[in-house]
């Protein structure tokens, strides 16, 4: 009976080497193995048989006697086929080949699709689309609403914090105004009734001396200066070699020859990386100051 229980309409009894079907009290078994009995209407009055008892209905599973006609039905899990009064075992599409994007609910002979909370079912009855609660004014945010998949978040204007239940805002007080940190530490106000103590940027805590000490950024390889790094309290600066112009972290060559007052060359100026040198026209030679030119004593 464990294996063939569904073959019996009402009761399955195991016997040696086989099984036996029987009906509940008040029912009798037809030649097709179905259990039928007198059917009563809602007033409990016995009504005449119109096909269920005499076998004319040919219903495969359940026959319901009505006033002047009969009706065939199927057990749960089966679908009625009107073409030949048969019952077809329902296929659970949700366990195999359904096309639902989110939820699938099996029905007799078919299935239905539905969506998670915060989504709506589109016209194709398969696809789900996020509901923008902010655009539809379905949110309860006091200040600003931010739509996210399947839900929304409430945000507050600058200077306000979100209350614990996530919809209304209250003004964020500066918890550092009461100077709660030790004098050798800086106070950092945080969102909500909170703050933290620590060293300012460019400093680190010395656990031995219990003070904030300057961080020497120039001792690290990532300071970024092209030429020279100069450490300062809490920060650092980049400097360039003589003859170069500073541009942030980089240094570019200064062409001294472009400015006559800077180079001092009497005749010709030759620019080099970070410097320059002077030269003279033919028939002249440099004086000892290596800028002025004098006529050569001979044509050599």
UniProtKB/TrEMBL annotation:
This is EGF-like domain-containing protein. It comes from Lottia gigantea (Giant owl limpet). PANTHER family: PA14 DOMAIN-CONTAINING PROTEIN, UROMODULIN-LIKE. It comes from the Eukaryota. Disulfide bonds join 94-104. Residues 90-129, 172-213, 214-250 form the EGF-like domain. InterPro entries: cEGF, EGF, EGF-like_Ca-bd_dom, EGF-type_Asp/Asn_hydroxyl_site, EGF_Ca-bd_CS, Growth_fac_rcpt_cys_sf, Nephronectin_domain, NOTCH1_EGF-like. Pfam families: cEGF, EGF_CA, FXa_inhibition. Keywords: Disulfide bond, EGF-like domain, Extracellular matrix, Repeat, Secreted, Signal.
């Amino acid at each position: 009976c464990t294996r063939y229980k569904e073959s019996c309409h009402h009761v399955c009894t195991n016997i040696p080497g086989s099984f036996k079907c029987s009906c509940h009290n008040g029912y009798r078994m037809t030649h097709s193995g179905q259990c039928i009995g007198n059917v009563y209407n809602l007033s409990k009055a016995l009504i005449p048989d119109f096909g269920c008892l005499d076998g004319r209905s040919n219903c495969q599973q359940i026959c319901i006697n009505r006033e002047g006609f009969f009706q065939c039905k199927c057990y749960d899990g089966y679908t009625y086929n009107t073409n030949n009064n048969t019952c077809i075992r329902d296929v659970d599409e949700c366990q195999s080949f359904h096309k639902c994007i989110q939820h699938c609910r099996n029905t007799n002979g078919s299935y239905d699709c539905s969506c998670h909370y915060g989504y709506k079912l589109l016209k194709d009855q398969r696809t789900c689309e996020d509901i923008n609660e902010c655009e539809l004014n379905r949110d309860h945010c006091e200040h600003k609403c931010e739509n996210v998949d399947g839900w929304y978040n409430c945000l507050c204007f600058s200077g306000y914090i979100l209350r614990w239940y996530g919809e209304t805002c209250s003004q964020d007080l500066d918890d550092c105004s009461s100077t709660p940190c030790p004098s050798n530490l800086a106070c950092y106000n945080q969102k909500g009734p909170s703050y933290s103590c620590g060293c300012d940027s460019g400093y680190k805590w010395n656990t031995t001396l219990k003070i904030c000490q300057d961080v020497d950024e120039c001792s690290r390889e990532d300071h970024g200066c092209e030429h020279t790094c100069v450490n300062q309290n809490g920060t650092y600066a980049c400097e360039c070699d003589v003859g170069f112009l500073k541009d942030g972290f980089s240094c570019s060559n200064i062409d001294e020859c472009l400015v006559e007052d800077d180079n001092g060359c009497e005749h010709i100026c030759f620019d080099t990386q970070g410097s320059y040198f002077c030269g003279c026209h033919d028939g002249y030679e440099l004086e000892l100051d290596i800028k002025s030119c004098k006529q050569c004593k001979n044509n050599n």
